[in-house]
Amino acid sequence: MLQTPPLQTSPPTTPSSRNASDARSTIECRDPATGAALGRVSVHSPEEVRERIGRARLAQRQWAETSFRERRQVLRALLSRIVDEQEAICRAAVRDSGKTMVDASLGEVVPVCEKLRYTIRRGARDLRPERRASGLLAHKKGWIEYQPLGVVGVICPWNFPFHNLMCPLIPALFAGNGVVAKVSEWSSWSSAYYLELIRSVLRQHGQQGDLVQVVTGFGDTGAALVDGGVDKVFFTGSPGNGRKVVSESAQTLTPVVLELGGKDPMIVCDDANLDHAVRQAMLGVYTACGQMCVGVERVYVFDDIYDAFVTRVTEAARNLRQGPPLEALVDVGSMTMPKQLDIIEDLLRDATEKGARVLTGGKRNQRAGDQFFEPTILVDVDHRMRITQEEQFGPVMVIIKVRSDEEAISLANDSRYGLGSSVFTQNRARGERMARRIRSGMTVVNDYGIAYMMQALPFGGVGVSGYGRINGREGLRACCHVKTMVSDRLPISAGVSVYPIKKQTYPISAAAVRVLFGSGLKQRVRGINQLVQTWAKPDDRGSTP
Ligand code: NAD
Ligand code: MN
Q1: Are β-strands 130-132 and 140-148 bridged in parallel, bridged antiparallel, or unpaired?
Q2: Pocket lined around ligand 1, Cβ cut-off 6 Å
Q3: Considering 90, 269, 289, 293, which one is annotated as catalytic?
Q4: Are residues 228 and 86 in the same domain?
Q5: Whose CA is nearest to atom 9 of ligand 1?
Q6: Which residues pair with 380 in a beta bridge?
Q7: Which DSSP state fits 337?
Q8: Per the structure, how many domains does the chain have?
Q9: Beta-strand pair 256-259/232-236
């Protein structure tokens, strides 16, 4: 039932591999789980990117005039379409990324639906004009208005093709912007279907489909979007490319929000509910085969429960079924990028050379296909090993034994990343105390990743995990120009008049500072005396002090 028209019809010329960006005009899309060819998309040139930004900008003029009520109607219709078409949406994401239908449902559809629900319910309130104090200028009123930026550029990674496109798009549209999204070269195929879904809803509501554009290509196409004249860029990807985006944006001084990777720690205290901690660790490590920015990359387990925890997760990991997700019922899918398998192997080699042990997995799963890596449990890990520092983005549970809260926190904080994190303990006060001390954008007590499901909460990182926030009020406002407004409260046209400056002008100002800002009666009375004396003096206009 899923029809995925190519973004731009391109002649099926010579076959091209996807992971090279040298002057190729098309990207050949493949299902990473089966290797099956899915189709081709164009590599958009800088000129084509500019042209699409221009089209979005034209359509945005009409969209910017709509009320929040009208935008809510569009979002409601979009939500309803997504609910109706959820299976096709998941299938397209599965084909493009190799994850399971359940991964797609929980990781792509649910957060997008929740974001729509949040924005429909709360968006107008979050972007309502806000009165601010007018201070000493009581005759004036001051407030801020959240205006659209214009056209927002979005640069997406490949791990959640539907979510990565929709989640920045929803607040951007609600705030009155047009959107040009550059999808990843590793998950471009599904984007044509997703784009048409959004556009058809827009058209049904009398808006132009051009308001939303998708461009495809490699890093160069992303770079062309950054300096193509968009008003802000939301980049999600690796720290290395985030750095490139920031330097590209320096040319035009385009503001950038960076959602980069993570190396999320999970601390399992001696008093944790073991069943719950085991289930959450499994979810945190093996969802989407570990290809998640807030995947659990390091598990710190207290020595008292270490053996029990390791036994339980090893047993559970051994039982995970793996294979092409659309062919049989499996628990874990494939890696999306072939390169990721090399990265995981390399990190595992380094760790085992330094004394870590693989209890299960630890190698490619050739029986399942070319791009599968077995669910792996790695123990006896310490911080000399690169796997505690570099994102592995794969199905490896990295387990480290700790002996105290202090040790757990200092190891959790021994990372340049700081995106998500979690602490498991049945002592809530202890959990919150530890959570506060973990250096990361989000910390959850007794759950993994659930911060993302609370769309009212801002999401983002510290350190090399990036800056700026998506989600919640902060994320909606990040799609806005914060416009300061000042107008009259009272019909008084009083204002400071200084010209021509007289000899007593400065003494009057100095005396006024004492009266207005002096602390205590003494300073203020001195100011009043000065004012009276200065006013009493005759005008000697024109002379210098
Ligand atoms: P990536 O950085 O390789 O690519 C991301 C996107 O940037 C792609 O569309 C790519 O074409 C584009 N790009 C590459 N070079 C560019 C350049 N010079 N200028 C502009 N655009 C450029 O990342 P990836 O491998 O697709 O995704 C994995 C990374 O993303 C991981 O580090 C992961 O943790 C992170 N991630 C973060 C979040 C989050 O919300 N914080 C979510 C998902 C993924
Ligand atoms: Mn793909």
Answers
A1: antiparallel
A2: 155-159, 182, 184-185, 218-219, 222-223, 226, 236-238, 241, 244-245, 248, 259-262, 293, 391, 419
A3: 293
A4: yes
A5: 184
A6: none
A7: S
A8: 3
A9: parallel
At residue 458, the 3 state secondary structure works out as coil
Q: What is the CATH number of the domain that holds 102?
A: 3.40.605.10
Question: What is the C-alpha to C-alpha distance for residues 356 and 285, in angstroms, rounded to an integer?
Answer: 18
Would you say residue 175 lies in a domain? yes
CATH number where 284 lies: 3.40.309.10
> How far, in Å, is the centroid of ligand 1 from the Cα of 238?
5
- Which pairs with CB-CB distance under 8 Å and at least 24 residues apart come from 85-92? 85/197, 88/1, 88/2, 88/193, 89/162, 89/194, 89/197, 91/2, 91/326, 92/2, 92/4, 92/161, 92/162, 92/189, 92/190, 92/193, 92/194
Q: CB 364: neighbour CB atoms within 10 A?
A: 17
Residues 410 and 268 in one domain: yes
| Number of other residues whose CB lies within 10 A of the CB of residue 506 | 13
Q: What is the pLDDT of residues 246-301, one digit of tens each?
A: 999 999 999 999 999 999 999 999 999 999 999 999 999 999 999 999 999 999 99
The reply to whether 460 falls in a domain is: no
326 & 220 share domain? no
Active site residue 269: no
In this structure, are residues 75 and 174 in contact, taking their beta carbons and an 8 Å threshold?
A: yes
Please tell me whether residues 239 and 286 are part of one structural domain.
no
Specify the pTM.
0.93
Q: Looking at 259, 374, 390, 391, which residue is catalytic?
A: 259
Distance of CA 402 to CAs 285, 303, 433, Å? Answer: 19, 6, 17
Query: Is 374 a residue of the active site?
Result: no
Residue 508, both tokens:
């009057």
Residue 523: give the domain boundaries: 496-536
Ligand 1 atom at minimal distance to the Cα of residue 470: 40
For the stretch 431-472, pLDDT in tens is 999 999 999 999 999 998 888 889 999 999 999 999 999 999
232 located within any domain: yes
Q: Let me know whether 240 and 317 are in one domain.
A: no
